[in-house]
């Protein structure tokens, strides 16, 4: 993309390289194999640095044809006794690492008249905070109407839009439809085709239509190349099964599927481009991969620039631990069970990006945990676990996180100082970086993380527990009562405490922990919701409240759940609006009759059958293959209906259904798939009424608990704990 807006297709001859080491016999076998294959390769003996072992002697293998690189690796992998490095990095990323390039980065290029790159060099660094993305033409493509998953049966016309101009594409034949779409693409020549359900529905069907009609569709800018695709898959992460749709990748322009991109969903195009720049991952791939892959790529890039070899497989297994050791070390973050009830003038203090900040502050990385050089240094010990951290050399992971944390702090400051579109830009960028911080800690314990280590994960959680306990001690020494604590946040109260008092407390905690903590706000009132099954026990992540400035905070209740029907969520939203107008708990209780009226209104609508189908839809993720369900639960019934209609479903995929008769003896009558809703459909009035009543009870239960609670427990004595300087 030239500065004048012209688009060029250039080719850069490039030779990727891998490394291996091993005993003399294995190396001789590898040398013989490389001489015997057709792909030209060049080898040389050299020295490179291993992150854990230091400088080692390795054989460098340069593969002349990048497309044959994976085949060469596969052949070499069959030789026993070899250890491989830099051999399974995505070639596009390896190219960008090696040339220090990144998506949408300005660069200087010297080419031949035939379009071959002789030399290419970056003109900027991906870590520059202020940059302007080039203007990109975006063509939007989706099914008209309801945004429900069209793979489950809904059919609609194709809607296209560019620069405020929109149209619904029609035609008497499939060929007419393809010609209409082709005209839009040729007319605007977009850089980005942004779709909804493009990976799993639109592009596969457009390709099939084009093949059936015998006419090409100009989705690629490179007319002579095909479309690269990726198969869908289901996998388990953090105890949950997740489904990702396949991918349809264009050449010469980008295809982004808003329904198949976590990064785009959370941070839109500015956040997606921010992640692609920093991770040096091509934009189409970044849109379809996890944020964890982005932080891993940042680490790989840092290692590449430092001349550190990147291991093929994780080479440092978890050390043996006894059962008692596991009980001591494998405990996760600290969570207090909240005092149930509603409280006034509560201050919330949040550690800023606590876990990544600790990894940066305390130098937590694979190579710094239990290092040989600091084993006897008292200040290096981690409180509560039998580990220590290096104090002599800076770790790879903290070096990456330090820049991420500083960059996000800058964007948050710019967001506060700007307005309108500029504020939105900074907000999306900092949101993308927020997720980098969230996953950076978890990836330390991921079994396949290149530079991860479970002991690093344990050090982080141990320090998190220690810092939260220090914060508790400081607060209680000043007369505050801790109502709740959740990993990196604390909720405190003290009679008569003002915003200034909470700010002073935050500064005292900073001095005690050496970690940034800020006052999130002071609540007019906040309510901690009890468990429905155990009414005397609070639920850590279920609460709602309103700050002094009118900002609200709602977590974990029906309104925030993805499986709540919109009739329930909308009613609870209106009820919260009524409650949040109250400045005190007494005023909030005075509004209870208004809540009862809102409930009665929705029950009347249900009983008079005035509710639309979309208001009743329940969205649930399939925990297994539909054929494996044995009980007639609603999601299983709906899944079976879709399968019988010819729909292919995968574990981890979301389905939508309406409860028709929850008590029916015949399982098939209990629910109906929303995408295949029959014309004579009905719904279970009693079941949806129960959902409405439960949503109201969620809001009222804390107030009942507050009335029954006679007093708040007095502050405990400060705890004397270990310290890590």
Automatic annotation (TrEMBL):
EC class name: transferase
DNA-directed DNA polymerase family B multifunctional domain segment(s): 293-481, 542-697
Molecular-function annotations in GO: DNA binding; DNA-directed DNA polymerase activity; nucleotide binding
Keywords: DNA-binding, DNA-directed DNA polymerase, Nucleotidyltransferase, Transferase
Gene3D superfamilies according to UniProt: DNA polymerase family B, C-terminal domain, Helix hairpin bin, Palm domain of DNA polymerase, Ribonuclease H-like superfamily/Ribonuclease H
EC number: 2.7.7.7
BP terms from Gene Ontology: DNA-templated DNA replication
Residues of the signal peptide: none
Catalytic reactions on record: DNA(n) + a 2'-deoxyribonucleoside 5'-triphosphate = DNA(n+1) + diphosphate
Keyword Transferase recorded: yes
Family membership: Belongs to the DNA polymerase type-B family.
Protein name per the record: DNA-directed DNA polymerase
């Amino acid at each position: 993309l030239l500065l004048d807006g012209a688009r060029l297709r250039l080719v850069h001859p490039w030779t990727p390289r891998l490394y291996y080491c091993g005993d003399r016999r294995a190396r001789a076998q590898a040398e013989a194999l490389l001489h015997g294959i057709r792909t030209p390769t060049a080898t040389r003996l050299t020295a490179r640095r291993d992150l854990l072992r230091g400088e080692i002697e390795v054989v460098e293998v340069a593969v002349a044809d990048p497309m044959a690189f994976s085949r060469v690796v596969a052949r070499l992998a069959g030789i026993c006794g070899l250890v491989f490095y830099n051999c399974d990095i995505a070639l596009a990323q390896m190219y960008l690492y090696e040339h220090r390039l990144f998506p949408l980065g300005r660069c200087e290029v010297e080419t031949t008249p035939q379009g071959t790159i002789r030399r290419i060099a970056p003109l900027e660094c991906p870590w520059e905070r202020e940059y302007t993305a080039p203007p990109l033409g975006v063509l939007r493509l989706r099914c008209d109407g309801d945004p429900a998953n069209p793979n489950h049966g809904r059919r609609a016309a194709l809607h296209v839009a560019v620069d405020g101009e929109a149209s619904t594409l029609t035609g008497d034949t499939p060929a007419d439809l393809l010609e209409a779409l082709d005209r839009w693409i040729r007319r605007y020549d977009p850089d980005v085709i942004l779709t909804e359900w493009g990976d799993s529905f639109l592009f596969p069907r457009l390709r099939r239509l084009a093949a059936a009609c015998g006419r090409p569709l100009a989705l690629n800018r490179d007319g002579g190349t095909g479309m690269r695709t990726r198969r869908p898959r289901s996998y388990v992460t953090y105890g949950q099964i997740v489904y990702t749709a396949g991918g349809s990748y264009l050449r010469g322009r980008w295809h982004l599927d808003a329904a198949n991109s976590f990064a785009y969903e959370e941070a839109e195009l500015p956040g997606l481009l921010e992640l692609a720049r920093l991770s040096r991952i091509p934009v189409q791939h970044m849109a379809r991969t996890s944020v964890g892959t982005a932080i891993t790529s940042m680490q790989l890039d840092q290692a590449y620039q430092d001349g550190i070899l990147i291991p093929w497989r994780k080479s440092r297994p978890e050390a043996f631990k006894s059962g008692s050791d596991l009980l001591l070390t494998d405990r996760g973050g600290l969570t207090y069970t909240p005092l149930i009830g509603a409280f006034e003038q509560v201050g919330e203090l949040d550690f800023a990006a606590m876990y990544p900040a600790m990894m940066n502050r305390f130098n937590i990385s694979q190579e710094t945990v239990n290092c040989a050089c600091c084993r006897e240094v008292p200040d290096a010990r981690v409180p509560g676990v039998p580990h220590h951290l290096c104090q002599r050399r800076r770790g790879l992971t903290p070096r990456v996180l330090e820049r991420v944390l500083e960059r996000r702090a800058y964007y948050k400051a710019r967001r506060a100082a700007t307005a309108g579109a500029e504020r939105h830009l900074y907000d999306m960028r900092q949101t993308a970086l927020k997720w980098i911080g969230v996953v950076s800690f978890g990836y330390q314990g991921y079994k396949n993380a290149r530079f991860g280590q479970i002991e690093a994960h344990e050090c982080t959680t141990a320090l998190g527990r220690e810092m939260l306990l220090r914060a508790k001690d400081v607060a209680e020494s000043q007369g505050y009562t801790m109502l709740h604590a959740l990993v990196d946040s604390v909720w405190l109260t003290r009679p008569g405490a003002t915003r200034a008092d909470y700010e002073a407390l935050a500064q005292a905690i900073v001095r005690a922990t050496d970690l940034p903590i800020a006052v999130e706000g002071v609540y007019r009132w906040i309510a901690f919701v009890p468990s429905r099954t155990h009414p005397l026990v609070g639920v850590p992540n279920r609460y709602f409240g309103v700050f002094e400035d009118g900002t609200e905070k709602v977590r974990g209740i029906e309104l925030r759940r993805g499986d709540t029907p919109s009739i329930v969520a909308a009613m609870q939203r209106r009820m919260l609006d009524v409650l949040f107008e109250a400045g005190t708990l007494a005023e909030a209780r005075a509004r209870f009759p208004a809540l009862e009226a809102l409930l009665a209104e929705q029950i009347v609508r249900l009983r008079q059958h005035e509710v639309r189908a979309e208001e009743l839809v329940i969205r649930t993720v399939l925990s297994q293959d539909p054929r494996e369900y044995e009980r007639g639960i609603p999601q299983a019934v709906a899944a079976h209906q879709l399968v019988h209609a010819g729909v292919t479903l995968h574990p981890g995929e979301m389905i939508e259904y309406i409860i028709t008769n929850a008590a029916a003896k015949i399982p098939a009558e209990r629910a109906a798939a929303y995408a295949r809703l029959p014309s004579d459909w009905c719904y279970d009035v009693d079941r949806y009424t129960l959902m409405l009543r439960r949503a109201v009870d969620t809001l009222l239960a804390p107030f009942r608990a507050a009335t029954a609670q006679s007093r708040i427990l007095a502050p405990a004595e400060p705890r004397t704990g270990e310290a890590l300087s």
